């Protein structure tokens, strides 16, 4: 109860205000954080854009404040469109957010009740607005600590000529200042046009600025996974308290923040499969692939002979469907659903491998499930995540994101991952990650202690 947690002088229940970036991969961790803070006695108000708005009915304990952004409803597509959309959101949310926050603070006692705002790292303008209204702003970054180091290093990477990428031949060069990254793994390596490069630089520098001027920085990661990166961030951000509270989905009740309906029937299907036999395939909420890549992926999986569960999001392949003959060729060896309960799927004993685009939530959920991963990154932080899965965690294989997929390469990668000694080694290291994640969120674990510190910090603001 917040009254006791805050000490005898604090009689009121304190309220945290949250503002997620309206994409699935950012909404989930923010709602997991909401669940965590609510369980520790805070009242929760979620401010949100109209785009990808959460459903208040599914979160009866929270208050919701819609903030109209006045942008066209169409979601982002390419990396450049995504960057443009995020920057446009910052501009268009600023004034209506200021108005709604000021209104929320107006009633007598309301200002004292509000402890802080926690905004996504890409909503810099909102942290500023809150500060000007005397509300302390904390920042949640939903990606890895390693990726945030990449954000901080971006100006140096540009000065030293790593970025923008001007020739294919540059892509495999190691970035010696930021191991284990190669140039192709950097944020922005995929936005080659000068417009794309400028947008990426703007987005990264604004996120770093938001964090530096914040009252606290929250990361969905844990010490045993990214100790060195966390130590560097703490040094770089001297003065800003850093809270590594991940994996959030293990600390907070199962997420009900899915924007798409999860098909739960696949769990029954998994129940009937042999232990560690199924390859789970999902490319997250934003990544897309060509119809040609989809067909090659499908035939590679079919030819591998491996049982599979495929969460094939509507629109993943821009309207293209699985190739004719695929269903007949795979029969009851495979199940295709539109959207899966991913956390439960990855924790299921029948799942023995995960083909992912390498989004940070997926990478963490895969690690917590103890499953080795085949990573086919598309854009943004996914290349760096795939690099970590393969080279640092040594719990998976990266399928180079550059070229067109080829069914023979897919088949060989699935076999390496799911069968034989090499796959067993990767599975063993994935299980080790699962144990470390479990230790981090257990009583006395590093993330639990970080949550305690975060709660005390918020109450002290
Ligand atoms: C995006 C970026 O791509 C990612 O790299 C970044 O770190 C966060 O924002 P997204 O592409 O959607 O996110 O990937 P990811 O981070 O993996 O998040 C997807 C979320 O959707 C996960 O929490 C996953 O559990 C959930 N999901 C995915 C489902 O619930 N069902 C599915 O079928 C697939």
UniProtKB/TrEMBL annotation:
<dbReference type="Pfam" id="PF00201">
    <property type="entry name" value="UDPGT"/>
</dbReference>
<protein>
    <submittedName>
        <fullName>Uncharacterized protein</fullName>
    </submittedName>
</protein>
<keyword id="KW-0808">Transferase</keyword>
<dbReference type="GO" id="GO:0080043">
    <property type="term" value="F:quercetin 3-O-glucosyltransferase activity"/>
</dbReference>
<dbReference type="InterPro" id="IPR002213">
    <property type="entry name" value="UDP_glucos_trans"/>
</dbReference>
<dbReference type="GO" id="GO:0080044">
    <property type="term" value="F:quercetin 7-O-glucosyltransferase activity"/>
</dbReference>
<comment type="similarity">
    <text>Belongs to the UDP-glycosyltransferase family.</text>
</comment>
């Amino acid at each position: 109860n917040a009254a006791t947690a805050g000490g005898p002088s604090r009689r009121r229940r304190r309220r945290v205000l949250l503002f997620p970036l309206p994409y699935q991969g950012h909404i989930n961790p923010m709602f997991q954080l909401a669940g965590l803070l609510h369980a520790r006695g805070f009242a929760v108000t979620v401010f949100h854009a109209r785009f990808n708005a959460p459903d208040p009915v599914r979160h009866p304990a929270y208050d919701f404040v819609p903030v109209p952004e006045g942008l066209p409803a169409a979601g982002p597509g390419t990396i450049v469109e995504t960057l443009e959309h995020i920057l446009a959101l910052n501009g268009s949310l600023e004034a209506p957010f200021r108005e709604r926050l000021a209104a929320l603070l107006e009633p007598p006692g309301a200002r004292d009740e509000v402890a802080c705002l926690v905004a996504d790292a890409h909503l810099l303008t909102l942290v500023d607005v809150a500060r000007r209204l005397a509300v302390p702003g904390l920042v949640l970054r939903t990606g890895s600590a390693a990726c945030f180091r990449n954000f901080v290093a971006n100006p140096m990477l540009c000065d030293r000529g790593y970025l923008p990428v001007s020739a294919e031949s540059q892509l495999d060069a190691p970035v010696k200042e930021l191991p284990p990254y190669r140039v192709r793994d950097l944020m922005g390596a995929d936005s080659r046009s000068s417009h794309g490069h400028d947008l990426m630089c703007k987005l990264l520098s604004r996120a770093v600025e938001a964090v530096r001027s914040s009252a606290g920085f929250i990361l969905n990661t844990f010490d045993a996974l990214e100790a060195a990166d966390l130590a560097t961030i703490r040094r770089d951000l001297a003065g800003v308290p850093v809270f590594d509270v991940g994996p959030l989905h293990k600390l907070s009740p199962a997420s009900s923040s899915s924007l798409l309906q999860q098909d739960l029937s696949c769990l029954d299907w998994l129940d009937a499969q042999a232990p560690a036999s199924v390859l789970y395939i999902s490319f997250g909420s934003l990544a897309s692939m060509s119809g040609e890549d989809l067909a090659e992926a499908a035939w590679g999986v079919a030819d591998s002979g491996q049982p599979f569960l495929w969460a094939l999001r509507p629109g993943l392949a821009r309207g293209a469907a699985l190739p004719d003959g695929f269903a007949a060729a795979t029969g009851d060896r495979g199940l295709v659903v539109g959207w899966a309960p991913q956390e439960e799927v990855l924790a299921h004993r029948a799942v023995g491998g995960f083909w992912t685009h390498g989004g940070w939530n997926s990478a963490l959920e895969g690690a917590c499930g103890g499953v080795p991963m085949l990573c086919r990154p598309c854009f943004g932080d996914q290349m760096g995540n795939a690099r970590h899965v393969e080279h640092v965690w040594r719990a998976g294989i990266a399928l180079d994101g550059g070229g067109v997929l080829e069914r023979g390469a897919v088949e060989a990668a699935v076999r390496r991952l799911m069968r034989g000694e090499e796959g067993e080694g990767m599975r063993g290291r994935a299980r080790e990650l699962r144990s470390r994640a479990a230790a981090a969120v257990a009583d006395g674990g590093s993330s639990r202690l970080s949550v305690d510190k975060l709660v005390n910090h918020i109450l002290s603001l």
